[in-house]
Amino acid sequence: MTTLFPIxxxxxxxxxxxxxxxxxxPFILKLPVRASHLALVLTQEQKLLERxxxxxxxxxxxxxxxxxxTDHFVASFDAFQIxxxxxxxxxxxxxxxxxxxxxxxxxxxxxxxxxxxxxQLTGQVVVAVHASIVSADDIQYKETNDLALLAxxxxxxxxxxxxxxxxxxxxFTDFRIHVDGFSxxxxxxxxxxxxxxxxLLQRLFExxxxxxxxxxxxxxxxxxxxxxxxxxxxLYTITNAMTMQDKDDxxxxxxxxxxxxxxxxxxxxxxxxxxxxxxYYKLVGQRLDDLREVRIQGIQxxxxxxxxRLEPAVNTCESVSHxxxxxxxxxxxxxxxxxxxxxIIIERxxxxxxxxxxxxxxxxxxxxxxxxxxSMVAIxxxxxxxxxxxxxxxxxxxxxxxxxxxxxxxxxxxxxxxxLNAKRIHKIIANTTE
Length: 434
Hints:
Distance between the termini: 76 Å
Strand content: 5-15%
Shape: elongated
Radius of gyration: 46 Å
Number of helices: 8
Oligomer: single chain
Number of domains: 3
């Protein structure tokens, strides 16, 4: 892209990051409208297949196909519009039809989608929703009417709802899955604009998806309770045994190490799920705030109903995750204390061993000195004997030499020479060891 001013070149991600604010923009819808929304959990392999599956739908209707790296796609076909988004754990499909039957849920938007294509969608459904935006006159809705009449659109179930978007619409639901496998949202249009309708439907769909995704951690949290309590009791048993003097510290340390490995395995295996639950819960709260709900007298708002049932489940997940984190810290502290005690015991044993080695070294030195003294006497004896033999030989040759006298007089000189040589050797050894 050329610039009018001599400024430095663009960062490679500048335009991608700049345009991110426009990503996943809501539809501009013509009212009235019916919509169907699917959220599917997929594996990495299935994500590649679903992109090819979406391309096949576009090719069937002669519509421009999505780019290979895109994670959201919007297109209009002959009888319906589609919005596709790919997220980290799931993908969503929203189908829109601009028709207004007498019964808002009698003829869903999915009926306009090719059945063969729909039946080959990959993944597992976690959310399936039908939504319909109708005028108040279409369903004879008045705020002064008995709201129980709305229950006819929800199989007689208790209705939950509120005014939203500054009073421009009223939203009703029962948060139940009906016989067709779909839950329902009924939106009564008071003064909705096309852009408001698109944003409202997107928020409602996201609330339903994020609510269910947040709850995926709840069964895991409940299943972990027995393991958490077991590990807690095991840690108590080990720490209690640490206070007793007759216990094998090495064995306790092995048990603590195994317990630490188990706890860390639980944490690493479920950390992502618990962290995702917390993130999804925050998103639900944000989307509910975006609705700007106003109470309709006599029924619960969407925010009240969801938070009353979702918050305890999320708190349970956070509690289990927090308890495992605390348990890991306690195990680490106990291991550190036990290792410190084991190190002190080993240090004492090493000190005793060194003292024993020092004593043996002193004894060996005394023995060496004694042997050295005996050796000096023996060397002196043999050296004096040699001198005596040499004197005898001289005497036999004719020299007047008293061999016994010479042998006796040589002894002091031999001792002095041996002592000086021993001292010199000790000095050489001392210099070498230093």
